[in-house]
Write a structure and sequence with these properties.
heterodimer, A: mainly alpha, 18 helices, B: about 300 residues, alpha+beta, Alpha-Beta Plaits, 5-stranded mixed sheet, 9 helices
């Protein structure tokens, strides 16, 4: 049986390419980690300054009392939508192309949810009193809603990530490639006696279904309560019932964008060209374009309803945003970060991996600016008779922002060394169920991979990139 | 207004009795938990007994500002004396101005001055959003802050529609004359960096029968200290029947439409009574001289002005 053989080869190859990164640490990877650690380390130095002198070292003052930290908090909460969306929603929709990217999407969610609350901590004037949120917490406060929401979301997505990981942990435990791995005991413990029996599969599928349905409302509520931190105030730009939907749309948009970027990076680094194909980039690109339209819709709806009536201080606010000091930010976001990515993907000739990644980068730069406009733009509107307030972040804030991003990359890099970045068991199961899915595109790629002589893994990557996928 | 007071008192009485009943029954439902939190938050305020004229009644502090008399101290040639006295008397750290005089545009041109302090809202947005009950309403209707509990998240500053809350961005200088003063939310001396401060209506000195610093310092007696429970207002020179005084002068409150129910009333005008031209501009800057005298004190400048 030719098909049978191909399926088995596919499985073996998949196992090899998924597990090789786990047992091998290259010099470049170590260098990369060192670089990220250096950025984080400089962030720690910056934070020590802030610890010593207080938030005085930031650019924030009484008029604009929230700055980059809150922007980064909202940004990372937005990114966390990636995992839930790709993994849970596509799982429910039973979209088969999702299989290789679900695991990675769950990484992104998990890492983003670990980083986001750090920015709240950085923003606090009295971080040592964090426990007051529990001992004196008022559940009437939007901040407490965020604490509850974030905790639930983080635990939920950790459970979700882990559940889909159990069979792969068993594979790690049993795999030839992992025989001498120093953390084999850990994989054994995490596999919790998984042997892939019929009953175990049934239970796992059942539990996964419950969790993936449960995680979607949790994710939506997370973005909702984050928007309510702003919408529960009486400030004109924030005082909007549309905010939760706006935040969910923005989260979908930036989440897909970050996923495309992470996918491109891991594809290059771990040589997963066979699994992360142009098709995945295209499909995610279509989603990116669709969500950009959604964000555009909210933009238009918000500014037209407000701008038509010009109630209260809206005229001043909109003027400042469209034509005043915030105009360069706004138009970069609106044209470069919202319209341009959608336009790029609308052009069939542009649907190449590099271009789609560019669109995703643009989208995320745009969404970062959008959060900046929400936080800083919202606070800059004067509530007493004086001029528009201004804000310029200091080196401490920029360093901590860079440190947060580095910590995010670091988390992904470290998790990717402990856990296969693709859900091996699901993909193998799928290839057995539907052999044509692996045999069809294999014909073009397999010989190239096979014909290369295998070099010692310390010198060369186990799987050089296959040109056919570029 | 007295209706509002009774409602306020009733709410308080019922909630506490309700809590005891529930606790007695051993029911620990959501209601009980929330009431428990309210009592925790009320504990700090219990440090100071509610001011009451006669048994059972609780004073309801308010401030009335007669804008007709306010000329931003142009006739004095000084910085607004109310703002200056507030800084000096309450040891307000630079660049905070718990009371600041703003120059508003006037219909038909020109401008008028409005001393602006914490509005002491009866539906206070700042209290509603505080995650740790570090800010609360006292029975007298004053919003106070406990800087020992504040976590410095600044949600209250975002929520305040009057921008009357200030943050200690750095370590505030400690005036030597307060070395022996123990911290209390009623005077806020000894607050640490990373917490929020604001006008506290000087209830520690008004309870002792003196006017707040701003009212004491105003050279044209434009600021009246009032008790809505006794229906009286005084600027230290004359005593008015508050309800009549407000009604006769068409008193208004800032941003009434937001529904925060401020306790600061303004009597409209534009300063003509004290001979100021409505078209003249210019306020003198206040100074934080008390802090400059200490050696090595750190201060910080205001941005966005």
């Amino acid at each position: 049986m030719e098909t049978q053989r191909q399926v088995e080869e596919y499985g073996a190859r998949l196992e090899r390419s998924a597990f090789t990164p786990l047992s091998r640490i290259s010099g470049r990877y170590t260098l990369f980690l060192m670089g990220l650690l250096a950025v984080v380390g400089f962030g720690v130095y910056a934070y020590l300054q802030q610890w010593d002198q207080g938030l005085l070292v930031t650019g924030m003052r009484d008029r604009i009392s929230w700055g980059l930290y809150v922007v980064m908090f909202v940004f990372f909460i937005g990114i966390s939508m990636a995992g839930t969306l790709i993994s849970a929603i596509l799982r429910i929709a039973n979209a088969e192309w999702r299989l290789p990217i679900t695991r990675m999407a769950e990484f992104v969610t998990f890492a983003a949810l670990l980083i986001a609350p750090l920015f709240i901590l950085l923003d606090m004037g009295q971080p040592t009193r964090l426990a007051n949120l529990l001992t004196y917490g008022r559940w009437q406060s939007p901040l407490l809603w965020d604490v509850f929401g974030l905790t639930t979301y983080l635990i939920g997505s950790a459970i979700y990530l882990y559940l889909a990981l159990i069979p792969d942990m068993a594979l790690c435990r049993d795999s030839e490639h992992m025989k001498n791995h120093p953390f084999r005991w850990l994989f054994k413990a995490l596999a919790i006696e998984w042997h892939g029996t019929e009953a175990q599969h049934r239970t796992l599928h059942h539990v996964l279904k419950v969790v993936m349905i449960g995680i979607i409302p949790v994710a939506v509520s997370m973005h909702t309560v984050t928007s309510w931190i702003f919408a529960m105030t009486l400030r004109e730009p924030w005082d909007s019932a549309m905010y939760p939907a706006f935040f969910v749309a923005g989260a979908l948009y930036s989440g897909v964008g970050v996923l495309i970027i992470v996918m491109a990076v891991l594809r290059k680094v771990f040589h997963l060209e066979e699994y992360f194909t142009l098709k995945h980039f295209k499909n995610l690109g279509y989603m990116l374009a669709a969500f950009s339209l959604l964000v555009m819709f909210f933009n238009v709806s918000e500014y037209v309803t407000a701008g038509f009536k010009l109630k209260g201080d809206v005229a001043e606010y909109l003027h400042n945003m469209f034509l005043g000091t915030l105009a360069p930010y706004y138009w970069t976001y609106a044209l470069g970060g919202m319209v341009l990515p959608a336009l790029i993907i609308a052009v069939p000739a542009a649907r190449r991996i590099g271009v789609i990644v560019l669109a995703a980068v643009l989208a995320n730069i745009g969404m970062w600016i959008e959060r900046y406009l929400i936080v800083v733009g919202g606070l800059s509107l004067p509530l007493q008779p004086y001029e528009m307030a201004t804000y310029s972040p200091t080196w401490v804030e920029w360093s901590l922002m860079a440190a947060g991003m580095a910590a995010f990359a670091l988390l992904i890099a470290v998790i990717a060394k402990f856990v296969p970045v693709v859900a091996v068991w699901e993909m193998v199961a799928h290839s057995r169920e539907k052999p044509e899915s692996v045999t069809s595109h294999e014909a073009s790629e397999k010989p190239k991979v096979k014909s290369r002589p295998r070099l010692p893994s310390s010198i060369a990557p186990a799987f050089p990139p296959a040109e056919g996928t570029k | 207004m007295s209706e509002e007071n009774t409602k306020h008192k009733l709410q308080h009485g019922i909630s506490r009795r309700g809590f005891i009943k529930l606790a007695g029954a051993g029911a620990l439902g959501l209601t009980a938990a929330s009431q428990g939190l309210r009592i925790i938050s009320a504990k700090a305020s219990a440090e100071q007994k509610p001011a009451s004229p006669t048994g059972g009644r609780v004073r309801q502090w308010a401030v009335v500002i007669n804008l007709r008399r306010c000329d931003g101290c142009q006739s004095q040639g000084t910085a607004p004396q109310c703002a200056q006295a507030c800084i000096d008397g309450r040891f307000v750290a630079e660049p905070m101005q718990w009371l600041e005089v703003y120059e508003h545009e006037q219909h038909g041109g020109g401008s008028f001055f409005a001393p602006t302090l914490c509005m002491q809202c009866q539906n206070p947005p700042c209290v509603n959003v505080c995650p740790v009950a570090a800010t609360w309403s006292t029975p007298e209707g004053i919003v106070l802050i406990d800087q020992r509990r504040c976590i410095g998240c600044r949600l209250c500053m975002a929520a305040c529609p009057f921008e009357r809350r200030f943050f200690l961005w750095g370590n505030p200088p400690r005036p030597p004359e307060t070395a022996l003063v123990q911290y209390s939310p009623t005077h806020q001396i000894g607050a640490k960096k990373g917490t929020v401060m604001k006008c506290d209506f000087c209830t520690d000195i008004t309870a002792a029968g003196r006017l707040p610093y701003c009212a004491q310092a105003c050279p044209s007696h434009a600021i009246y200290w009032a008790d809505m429970e006794e229906d009286l207002a005084t600027n230290g020179e004359e005593v008015k029947k508050l309800s009549v005084f407000l009604a006769d002068n068409e008193a208004y409150r800032m941003k009434e439409e937001l529904g925060t129910k401020p306790r600061v009333y303004y009597l409209p005008g534009h300063g003509q009574d004290v001979g100021r031209s409505a078209f003249a501009k210019g306020l003198k800057e206040v100074h934080w001289s008390w802090g400059q005298e200490g050696n090595g004190v750190k201060s910080w400048k205001r941005s966005g002005r």
